[in-house]
Amino acid sequence: MSFSSTVKKELEKHISTARHCKIAEITAILSASGRILQSEKGAFLYIQTENEAVSRKCFTL
Questions:
Q1: Which residues does the UniProt record annotate as the domain Sporulation transcription regulator WhiA N-terminal (predicted)?
Q2: How far apart are CA 41 and CA 46, in angstroms?
Q3: Closest CA to 61 of 34, 14, 22
């Protein structure tokens, strides 16, 4: 397992209670892995990642 995968797994387990920390984490994930797509049905947030820990963290936040 790579160093970055190990760090991501550790960060997944830590859930901050502070709202500003949660906002910072989700902003970082969206900045690295997210896109906003627009269609005639509206705007959609698309997150693509190869790491399951990052996916789980998005739903937890």
A1: 19-61
A2: 14
A3: 22
Residues sharing a CB contact under 8 Å with residue 9, sequence separation 6 or more, in sequence order: 53
Report the C-alpha dihedral over residues 7, 13, 19, 24, rounded to 10 degrees: 20
Kindly report, residue by residue over 8-19, the tens digit of the pLDDT. Answer: 888 888 888 999
- Tokens representing 24 are 């910072």
Q: Are 54 and 8 in contact (CB under 8 A)?
A: yes
Instruction: Enumerate helices (H) and strands (E) in the chain, giving the number of each.
Output: 3, 2
How far from each other are the two terminal CA atoms of the chain, in whole angstroms?
25
Q: What is the pTM of this model?
A: 0.71
